[in-house]
Amino acid sequence: MPIYQSMQRVRFSSPDGYEKFKVLFGEVRNQLKTLPGFLHLTWWVHPQDPSWYNEISIWTSFEALKDWHMNTYHKQAKAWAVRSGAIMEDIITNFELKNTRLIRVCPCCADISDKAYDLHREQAVLAEPCPKCGFKFPVMPETTDSTAVFKDVSPGVAHQPGSSNGSEVTTERPA
Q1: By CB neighbour count within 10 A (0-12 exposed, 13-18 middle, 19+ buried), where does 72 fall?
Q2: Digit-coded pLDDT (tens) for 81-133
Q3: For 55-63, what is the mean pLDDT?
Q4: Pick from 31, 19, 38: which is nearest to 166 by CA?
Q5: How many CB atoms lie under 10 A from the CB of residue 170?
Q6: Residue 15 burial (CB < 10 Å; 0-12/13-18/19+)?
Q7: Greater model confidence, 146 or 170
Q8: What is the C-alpha to C-alpha distance for residues 51 and 132, in angstroms, rounded to an integer?
Q9: Which residue has the higher pLDDT, 45 or 168?
Q10: pTM
Q11: How far apart are CA 153 and CA 168, in angstroms?
Q12: What is the residue extent of each domain of the chain?
């Protein structure tokens, strides 16, 4: 079953636009966790350009990704960003997963591991300790502001049609 990654590069029209966006974005994690095909979202500021923001999200199927884009909350938030002029630019690129690997070097016993793993179970895999000495590798927790959101799912769960609660949204900016 294919896994999809969506990458967005976003530039806001002003620092104030970004501050207002963060209020809406804080709710995103609660919305994403209800979708059966959601796996991961990370949002960060580019280190060389503080007005350039990067987001990746990972999904169990392309249909699950489309389901998120039909979600009422997501559509309304995007419509607000367009109407208000908060977002100046949003570049979106989607990818299909070919493989995943986890390479670790234990800082305690120097055990080296290099293994393929199932992305559906990423959080469980990352939580596994060193097989030789039991060292617990750091695992980033979810954040309440939605800049890091994670969920493992059963590999059989890809997409449930109609789970988005979508409706039409107008994205025209006022004149």
Answers
A1: middle
A2: 989 999 999 999 999 988 899 999 999 999 999 999 998 899 999 999 999 99
A3: 93
A4: 31
A5: 8
A6: exposed
A7: 146
A8: 44
A9: 45
A10: 0.74
A11: 29
A12: 4-98+140-150
- Count how many residues are written for the chain: 175
pLDDT band at residue 163, thresholds of 50, 70 and 90? very low
**Run of H or E residues at 12:** strand 4-12
Among 3.30.70.100, 2.30.42.10, 3.30.750.24, 2.102.10.10, name the CATH number for the domain at 4-98+140-150: 3.30.70.100
Six token digits for residue 93: 């690129």
- The CA-based angle 74-80-86, given to 5 degrees, is 115
**Token pair for residue 65?**
């990704």
DSSP state for residue 85 in the 8-state scheme:
T
What is the pLDDT at residue 102? 95
Q: Which amino acid is at 136?
A: K
